[in-house]
Structures are given as structure tokens and as C-alpha cells.
Automatic annotation (TrEMBL):
GO terms for biological process: lysine biosynthetic process via diaminopimelate. Keywords: Amino-acid biosynthesis, Cytoplasm, Isomerase, Lysine biosynthesis. It is an enzyme of class 5 (isomerase). It comes from the Bacteria. GO terms for cellular component: cytosol. SUPFAM superfamilies: Diaminopimelate epimerase-like. GO terms for molecular function: diaminopimelate epimerase activity. Substrate binds at N11, N72, G82, N83, N154, N186, E209, R210, G219, S220. It catalyses: (2S,6S)-2,6-diaminopimelate = meso-2,6-diaminopimelate. Homodimer. This is Diaminopimelate epimerase.
């Protein structure tokens, strides 16, 4: 299987090109590819397949040629991955599978079609509007933290802290209310930052992702954090700089209610992986 490795602010992915949808990926194969010691290692897999060739995206084929079939490192599927879309767009354009469109390259996801605007260093994605759905709480260590539930296509819980983020132990998954999040949740922990140029708000964030553990960045998580920060500031439009362990993402809500997620997206390596050499000699699903 041919692959490319890429990342957006340290949120890293194995990109698997399969335009005609000949792979039947399995959770075991995805988990083996993402294994950081015995596989390639990544937070998730971006399966690059034509929308028309995948049952989860066939309904979007008229609007978006390409479907980002996103898998978490544990082999679970997710509806959305904001950094993944940006790396996916970089892959399509770099490999001549799509042209950068000035009004945005459409990409189908399980949460609908989003649009990526590409330049040399940054990729901005027009995301679907995040929806604040209410309150809930997360438990980390001995602390119970109130948070705001946000639907970005995938579920998020944004918990603001007074103290430093580096005191949190995110090697253990935070507890959450399964009645509020029956399919699990990505949990963002935030601390307000000092003012930065070009942003109305500045937030530091760490994240524990459903299906991947603590990652260096989460684009949809940054979108959720941006939505909460703008709401708390009483702003109906504005920009939020979100600093994650892997760099900076910018979330912008425009006056006409468009939501943008922007930051770097980089391809770092390409190669071939032998599924038979992966942990558990996973061959099923890799033709
Ligand atoms: N890192 C991603 C989110 C990936 C999916 C998430 N773990 C989930 O299960 O919802 C991002 O950049 O948005």
C-alpha cells in the first residue's frame, strides 16, 4: 500500500490514496498503521477516495469529487477532522488530483462538504458552523471541570481552566457523561492567553481526542474553542488564535456567519507499507 505522511500543527496522519475505493479498510489495519512503534505511526488515517466510490459519501458526489474517509488511531471512524481536511487538501493538490479553487476546493466528510482554500504555507477550511448544545463536565485526575458541549459535526466538550495546562495528566482519558455524549467526546482544556496581533481572543488549548488520546492539535477542537471564546466575548464575528502544543490555529467567524479554520498543513514523507509486516500481520482490507 502506498502512503504519504503529513501533519497539521503536529496532528499527524497516514494518507492512503485509493481513488477508486478498492481498499476495505478495517479497524485492525488502521490501528496497525497508526502504531507508533510497529507501524507508521499517526493520530489517524485519511483514506483518499472518490465520493462516488464510497457508500458514506455517494450522496455528495455531485458537490465534491473527493471524500475524506477519516479513521482515528484506534480504528474508529469519525465524522470530521479539521486538521485532516487541511492535510487532505494539501495531498490532493500536491499530487495533481485536484486544482486549488479560489472559492474553495470541496471535500466531502461524514459531516458534510467543507471547502479548503490553499496557499503555499497555510490552508484555510470553511467549516460547517459549530453548534453550542449546552453544558456538561469532564473529570481529569481528581478534578471535575465544567464545560461547554459543541457539535462541530463531531462532538466536543470545551473546559476552561484557571490554572496552567501543563499540570493536566492527559495520558488517561477524561471522564465524561455518556448520556450527553453517547458516542464519546473530544475534550479540550483551555486557558486564556495574552493578546496577540490579528486576533480578538487568544486561547491556549490541550486536547484529549476520542479514539486517539492526547494529540498535539485538533482542528475541530480549535473550532469548538473558537466558538466558545467568541460567544463568551459577546462577539458575533471575530478571530481567535488557538495555541496548541503543535503550533497555532486561527478560527474566524465572518460577519456573514462563515467559519474558517486556518493553519499550516505539511506532507513530510511518502512510501510503501507492507500490511503483512504490521502488528498482527493485518492483511485483511489491504488488497
Ligand atoms: N484531530 C481531528 C479530529 C479527529 C476526530 C476526533 N478524534 C473524533 O473522534 O471526533 C481534528 O483536527 O479535527
Amino acid at each position: 500500500m502506498f502512503f504519504t505522511k503529513g501533519h497539521g500543527t503536529g496532528n499527524d496522519f497516514v494518507v492512503l490514496p485509493d481513488p477508486d475505493g478498492t481498499y476495505a479498510l478495517t479497524p485492525a489495519l488502521v490501528a496497525a498503521l497508526c502504531d507508533r512503534r510497529r507501524g507508521i505511526g499517526a493520530d489517524g488515517v485519511l483514506h483518499v477516495v472518490r465520493s462516488a466510490k464510497h457508500p458514506d459519501a455517494a450522496g455528495h458526489a455531485a458537490d465534491a469529487e473527493w471524500f475524506m474517509d477519516y479513521w482515528n488511531a484506534d480504528g474508529s471512524l469519525a465524522e470530521m477532522c479539521g486538521n485532516g481536511v487541511r492535510v487532505f487538501a494539501r495531498y490532493l493538490v500536491t499530487h495533481g488530483l485536484a486544482d486549488p479553487a479560489p472559492d474553495g476546493l470541496p471535500i466531502a466528510t461524514r459531516a458534510g462538504v467543507v471547502h479548503a482554500v490553499i496557499d503555499e504555507h497555510r490552508i484555510a477550511v470553511r467549516m460547517n458552523a459549530p453548534v453550542i448544545t449546552g453544558g456538561s463536565a469532564a473529570v481529569t485526575g481528581t478534578r471535575r471541570l465544567d464545560g461547554v458541549a459543541v457539535d462541530c459535526g463531531n462532538p466536543h466538550l470545551v473546559c476552561a481552566l484557571a490554572g496552567p495546562l501543563d499540570e493536566l495528566d492527559l495520558s488517561v482519558a477524561p471522564g465524561y457523561d455518556p448520556a450527553v455524549f453517547p458516542s464519546g467526546v473530544n475534550v479540550e482544556f483551555t486557558v486564556a492567553g495574552a493578546a496577540v496581533e490579528g486576533a480578538d481572543r487568544h486561547v491556549h488549548m490541550r486536547v484529549h481526542e476520542r479514539g486517539s488520546g492526547e494529540t498535539m492539535s485538533c482542528g475541530s477542537g480549535a473550532l469548538a474553542v473558537g466558538a466558545v471564546a467568541l460567544r463568551e466575548a459577546g462577539l458575533s464575528a471575530g478571530a481567535v488564535a488557538v495555541d496548541v502544543p503543535g503550533g497555532r490555529l486561527t478560527v474566524t467567524r465572518t460577519a456573514d456567519d462563515r467559519w474558517w479554520l486556518a493553519g499550516p498543513a505539511v506532507l513530510v514523507a511518502s512510501g510503501e507499507v507492507d500490511p503483512a509486516a504490521l502488528p498482527g500481520a493485518v492483511t485483511e482490507g489491504a488488497e
